[in-house]
Amino acid sequence: MRILEVGCGSGAFTTFAAKASGIKGEVYALDIQPKMLMQLKKKLSRPENRDIKNIKLVEGDVHKLPFDDNSFDLVYTVTVLQELPDKNRALKEMKRVMKPGGILAVTEFLLDPDYPLKSTTIKLGEEAGFILDKVAGNLWNYTVRFKAQKSM
Description:
Number of strands: 7
Strand content: 25-35%
Number of helices: 4
Helix content: 25-40%
Strand order of the largest sheet: 3-2-1-4-5-7-6
Largest sheet: 7 strands, mixed
């Protein structure tokens, strides 16, 4: 799988995605802040992570992603969507870089000061043209999974 993590920060979830993506999988860890990418780079140099070779660090803005159309099988964010200044534009960019039928996963945690209700996340995704696929979790944390519509 080719995976894009939007707003990877210091990489709290990046290594798990890299391991889950398979031997031939690739994870692109995108963040707008160079300091966050440096923290992730430092994390990847630790002995327990040295065998992870399929993560590519990318400095960039989700509102103008530096990737070709139809590039990713999966795009995910963890407590990032509500921090974006133009959520709709960001979601449309994520959709642009997803393969037809690809998955967008949006995870939120109640402890995040920008925590939205599930219904808010679902509405944002559907307004951007995604199809709701699955909702998992509870009030404390949840993941909403969408599918990108296939081109006709």
